[in-house]
Amino acid sequence: MASTNDILTPSFQMNNESKDFDQVIIETSSSPLNLKTQSSPASPNLYLNTPNHLKLNDLKSPSRSLSPSRSLSPSRSLSPSRLSRPPSPINPNVPVIYSRPSSPSRDHLKDATTKYVDELLFVFYDALDNYPINQVIVLIRRHLEGNDQKGEKIFKWLLNNGHDVKYKTLLGFFYEGGIGTEVNERKAFNSYIAGAKMGIAYSQILLGNCYSLGKGTAIDETLGFKWYQKAAETELCVCGLCNFANCFDFGIGTEIDKKKAFNLYKKSIKTGKLLGLSELGYCYQVGCGVEKDLKKALEYYKQSAERDNSDGQYYLGVFYEFGVEVEMDVRQATSWYCEAAKNGDEEAQNKLYDLLKE
């Protein structure tokens, strides 16, 4: 991610003769944001220069308004954590947070791919505790590319080692995100349910999401609530707390209780993980379970954004675009939207579509 100073001082190079959206290319790297035009006999696409090259002009205009709340679907956050090792042997009645990679003394017994997958599992759960789900997909793909690994190869390895329950969640996530294979929500659901029944908190969270959103199964908000609650019982699992809080925030499988949602979000940030920061910003922005305070909302969004969380980056962009507790600055708004879009935020991609088309 670019440094904060770079992000806040983007340089723009626009062709004064044409503002044709199809001719604008966003170049994102560690250097400041640059917008420039490119001529081509064909119809050039607007690209976000990420590993999977998002084509923003293929996106439809956003259907939602840019006021306080984002999507009300569960969850603005989906996440797990890496904090403790499961009991051995696994006790189905004991929630599992995370099994760290094997100790160095056993590494010599594993082949290179097994060692890499164990490391990837560690990265995966840590990312789920800090970032929204779309950003986690981007991060996993970047990790694979950065380590010269092919998604297809790792997916096949996970498939062949599906008998080991600790890999079930990651296998399900490959199915859900279409990493190394075609998207298959039903198979993702089946993988999550296998891990959830063995007490793996992250599988429980993602299974709760399947039930709440109807991914790979019929919508059942009561079961979604049940699995979020189970994961939240492991209090060090930040995504469990945040998703459980979402249930009370939006009435998913339970009665709405904004105060309880706020308290759970607040509890989640005590672990030092990022996921709850933007949630608290949202609470202060709209007055969810707490008195509305836009200055505090801005503070939490800044903390989240500067630590590379795409939700925080998106909302900080909104504050700059509309001049909420800051001077209105479309350049900085666009810059933060670019950072969020790089990290897989679809709403930020749509915002860029609108801003650059104007």
From TrEMBL:
Pfam families: Sel1. Residues 32-109 are annotated as: Disordered. InterPro entries: Sel1-like, Sel1_AlgK, TPR-like_helical_dom_sf. It comes from the Eukaryota. This is HCP-like protein. Belongs to the sel-1 family. Gene3D superfamilies: Tetratricopeptide repeat domain. PANTHER family: ERAD-ASSOCIATED E3 UBIQUITIN-PROTEIN LIGASE COMPONENT HRD3, SEL-1-LIKE PROTEIN. Signal peptide: none annotated. SUPFAM superfamilies: HCP-like (SSF81901). Residues 62-85 have a biased composition (Low complexity). Residues 32-52 have a biased composition (Polar residues). Coiled coil: none annotated.
